[in-house]
Every structure is written in structure tokens, then in C-alpha cells.
Amino acid sequence: MEGHPAKSGFRMPAEWEPHEQCWMGWPERPDNWLEHAAPAQETFVRTAIAISKFEPVTICASTEQYPNVHKQMQHQTNIRVVEMSMNDSWFRDMGPTFVTRKAGSGITKHSIAGIDWEFNAWGGTCITTEECLLSPNRNPNMTKLEIENELKDYLGVTKVIWIPCGLCGDEDTNGHVDNLCCFIKPGVVLLSWTDDEKDPQYERSVEALSTLSESVDMKGRQIEVVKIHVPGPLYMTEEEAAGVIFSGHSVMRESGTRLAASYVDFYIANGGIIAPAFGDDKRDKEACQVLQKAFPEHEVVMVEGAREIVLGGGNIHCITQQQPVRPSWEARALSFIKIERE
Could you confirm whether 318 is annotated as catalytic? Predict the structure, then answer.
């Protein structure tokens, strides 16, 4: 398809709008995942099963891993496994960003498309971070304005809010926004927070809060901020660092490195919130309560073992990608969700 998607009537639906399915990759790289990805694979399985209770899941696995994944998922009725080789399993990064458009004004049918971004390896009203998109290893030949216009042209957004920095410890992604904050409904943002003024995350969260509090969305609404406390802080152990094989093509894992652990890195399913649990009982429980209050119509499911994903550089939101329903399917999807939830 030629031309910019927004000019052709496409837009990226909000994550809380109805989904047709969820896409995931399958981890296997020994130079990114602990112990040849075996512990991470267990958490990926738990995540996929949790999401499948609310919507269909497609897991993409390499030729070598396909038999293994198929065997583990063969009794799961709402999960399919397809063979698709890829560099790694961060589907939020490498998978397409889905956009949809409704029929009308010369368009004869509703449609859905995937944006094939130029993936440079971590390196609605839209929120992003300057730390990430203005990083010299990402878009060195583009100005901030050019990047903003690109987001508008491809996602169909009309307003971009720039936050200075991402989450503390998120060097792998240059500070992706999905670890720091996200929209949970129009005009309302969930923000990773800490009350510890000595924590380096505190300054980043305060800075983000200041930016958001002074911002309005594309409809002129003042941004409302809901805080959710980060776990820990958590750090990589010597055993965990030693369990990753450095290949020269990956990020060196060093003991004592702060992990970019955040409860904001969750997935919104059709009627469910699939969120990471890090084994920090106090903060895990607190996060569950905050999410349940923020999404009263959803069931919050905390996935145990999420530390295994953050060791690789992300979490549940990073390993998933929602495929929105085609506009013509929307009424049917909502009806299906209502029947299933009752």
C-alpha cells in the first residue's frame, strides 16, 4: 500500500478497544535469555494461557522450536502455534502495529493493515520518550519534528506528548515508554512511581508527572495521572548474569545491573488485564489493586515469574501485540465478550 496510512483513513485503535487476537513470539536466543531461555519459556507459556482465557493467541516460533511449542500448547483450545523465524521474541518491537479504517468516503469496505516499521533494535494522542526516539542509535538523521510527523502519518494521531526519560535501568530499549507510563482510558495515564526520593527513578517519575500534568490531549482534556509503585528495586544476580551467553551481538548482562521492572508493562485483553508479578509480595498485591481499580470491568491476572522476562529486557506488554477487530466485526466482538463474561 502506498502513501501514509493516516491520509488513507487508517488509525491505530487504543489498546482497550476490542481485539481479534493477540500475537506473541517465542524466546530462544541464549545470548539474551537465561539458561537457553528455558525459564523465560515457562513464563511465556503462563502469559499465553492467561491471555487465551480472554481472546485467541497466536504464538510464532522458529522451525527448531515449533515442535516444542506445539507440544506444550496442543491442549490449549484458544492458542495456535505458527512457524515464523525471527531474530527474537519482542513482538511489540518487531511485529506490525495494526491500524484499521471504516468504509465510507469512497472506501468500499472496512479493513485492517499492519505497519511494517523499520526495526532498529531498541536503538491516539501518543506518548513517547525523548530518551528513546531521539537516541542517536535510532533515528540519527531525523529531527524531533520529523519523528513526530512520522508518528502522526502512520498511526493517525494528532497530538504527541514527549516525556524526557523512560524507566531507570531500561538501557536495553533506550527508555521505551511502555515501562514508564501508558493510557488506560481517554485522558488518563498510568505512571510508574516510587516514593523513595533516594531512588534514581524518583527524579524520572517526578519529571514525567510534571510533563503529563502540564499536558492536554488532542481534545483539550487535562491529563489525569494514576500512580503505580514500581517493585524492588530489583537487580540482576551473579547467577542470572552467568546464565546468559554473550555472543557479541547482544547486550552484555552484568550482575548488579538494575532491572527495568514495572507493572505498567501489562497487556489489555478483551475483558482481562495480564500483568507481571515479580515476587515482591507487597508491591505485587498493591499493583493488582491499582490495576483492578483502574479497570473495574476487567479481571486482573498477575503472571508469576515475570522476572524471567525482565531479565531479557522487557515484560508482558513488550512480548505481545494486539490485533484489533476489523471495524465491521466490532459489534459482534462486543456481543461475544458480553456473553462469555456472563
Answer: yes
